[in-house]
Fold:
Amino acid sequence: MSESTTPASDKTDDKQVSNASVVAGTAISGVSIVEGEATAKRKPMPAWMKSKKIQPIISLVLLIAVWWGVTSAGLINSLYLPGPKAVWDAFIEANSCRPASAGSSRIVCGEQQYFLWQHLVVSLERIGIGMALGIVVGVLVGFILAEIGWLNRIILPYINFIRALPPLGYIGLLIVWFGIGDTTKIWLLFLAAFPPIVLATVDGINGVNRNRVNSALSLGASRPKAFLFVVFPSALPSIMNGIRLAVGFAWTTVVAAELNNGIPGIGALAYLSGTELNTPLTIACIFVIGIAALLLDWLILGITHLVTPWVGKE
Structure:
């Protein structure tokens, strides 16, 4: 009897040793058996949810769903936060013609006698002029300050002072000087864009590797050619970053620039609709301003990659 039971006990011992070795191996690898089973049971994330292009869309859909749920449940007064449909209807109404009132034969188009897209175009024109002046003057002044040290020490503090001022702080002075027309608005947008471009240009030139400039000069290049083919390309990435920041500052200034006699203008429309408690139109204007700003930023990034293809490859 003792001899017949010996092989079974040996098999049992072998299984125990095998199980112990598995547990020990799992413990050594730092993963518990419970965690291993949970990992095995956990379903992998679908491939479409991992897409970098799909994830922002999912985020937007979830945001709209939460927004719709909160407003539909009446948790917030519609005067303070209208639903997505009300905002969409306000957007469509601001871009179409309709009777002035129920049963009226008089037709009204858009808001404040202009379509919303016309308000946006006028604001883009103002920003375009202010930005163009800011780029030309800012880059030129930046190059001068970077090359002339004593002038840099005198003027740069004043440029930083202008950069630190909020637009509403000096818009009254600009109105006194230039009136309430487009000249004041363009000046305000120029002053918002000018300082970051100057500072970015100065930083870009000061960051140029002087060994490259000296090498070009030693190989026979004149100073204008060394500037054009060495200094300017090396400083261009910093200048483009400054332009990108300047566009953002200009967009944040557009409402302040259009507070007085700003119609047509998307900033003025957002302000006036808020004062009239037309919250859906105000939110629609905010969305339009934000989307336009994102598209401009995307455009500037594309231009930056186009004109500075060597960045990140050196």
The longest strand covers residues 97-99. Residues 150 and 156 are 10 Å apart (CA to CA).
